[in-house]
Amino acid sequence: MLFFLFAGALSLHAAAPIKKVILITPHVDAIRSEFGRGFAEWHLRKYGEKAEADFRQVGGTSDALRFVLSEFAEKPGGIGIDCFWGGGEEPFLVLGDKRLLMRYDPPAEILSGIPESINGVEVYDPNHTWYGAALSSFGILENLRVQRLAGLPFVRQWEELARPELFGWVGVGDPRNSGTMNVMFEAFLQFYGWERGWQMLTQIGGKGIFIKELEDALAAERLKVEAFRKLIEITEREEGISILKKDEAKQLKSLGRTTPEK
């Protein structure tokens, strides 16, 4: 299963500070740091000038979308934000319907190497108002030490998260607040079909703890060992565990990740 990190340019934005791009995003620090560093290096290499990405956060995807819409309602001439980054396709459909996105046409040599869709999922908007910024995967993060101590089963497939003995041990982000979780749930329905997909999501959700704030709360829940399997946006194992504090690094060896094939 694949999902995307999305980005789209907001129209009517106020002039941003020189050599700085202002983005509103629900992405966690690990993703912001990687993309911010990459952008700065690319800009210096291409233009010979320093530039930086200035990230603004107000919460999850739904929080960011509400903020942008409310700001435009009060200040239709510009809200001082250049780019809405992350959250899946849904917020960009809303912003596009309200004509709050600007068209951007990348150089032909770049766009020609990007497919319009993958497995039926659009990679970028046909009207060129938003683009998928990355391809990624998602999986199951497990606290191996807790599993051994509690005698809990190891999970290798999604449907195994619904096992009765895992009641109260499954943690999952809230799709009402997290665009990432919303995209992941949609991927379930597309892959398994409507009936089987909802059956599995209901069974897994019935065993788990819904975590509204995906970043800080997820780390806290993990450290408290209130849940050990997390359905989270993850591109590499290091990224998934990087939100732990430095003085808790000893916990890292206890974490394992599985990317189920089904």
Molecular structure report:
It is a single chain. This protein is an alpha/beta fold and 262 residues long. It has two domains: 3-134, 3-Layer(aba) Sandwich (D-Maltodextrin-Binding Protein, domain 2), CATH 3.40.190; 136-258, D-Maltodextrin-Binding Protein, domain 2. The chain is 35% helix and 21% strand. It is built from nine helices and eleven strands. The strands form two sheets. Strands 1, 2, 3, 4, 7, 8, 9, 10 and 11 form a nine-stranded mixed sheet that branches. Strands 5-6 form a two-stranded antiparallel ribbon. A hairpin with a 2-residue loop joins strand 5 (117-118) and strand 6. The chain is globular. It starts with a strand and ends with a strand. Mean pLDDT is 77; it is low at 214-252.
Note the topology:
Blueprint: E1 3-9, E2 20-24, H1 29-47, E3 52-56, H2 61-74, E4 83-85, H3 90-97, H4 108-111, E5 117-118, E6 121-122, E7 130-143, H5 144-150, E8 170-173, H6 179-192, H7 194-206, E9 208-211, H8 216-224, E10 229-234, H9 237-241, E11 255-258
Parallel strand pairs: 2-3, 2-4, 8-9, 8-10
Antiparallel strand pairs: 1-4, 1-7, 5-6, 7-10, 7-11
Provide the succession of SSEs: EEHEHEHHEEEHEHHEHEHE
Average pLDDT across residues?
Answer: 77
Compute the CA-based radius of gyration.
Answer: 20 Å
Largest sheet: 9 strands, mixed
Low-confidence regions: 214-252
- Class inferred from helices and paired strands: alpha/beta
Q: Shape, please? A: globular
Indicate the proportion of strand residues. 15-25%
Query: How many distinct beta strands?
Result: 11
Just name the CATH architecture of the largest domain: 3-Layer(aba) Sandwich
User: Could you tell me how far the N terminus lies from the C terminus, measured between alpha carbons in angstroms?
Assistant: 9 Å
At CATH level 3, the topology of the largest domain is D-Maltodextrin-Binding Protein, domain 2
Fraction in helix: 25-40%
Number of helices: 9
How many structural domains can be distinguished in the coordinates?
2
CATH class of the largest domain: Alpha Beta
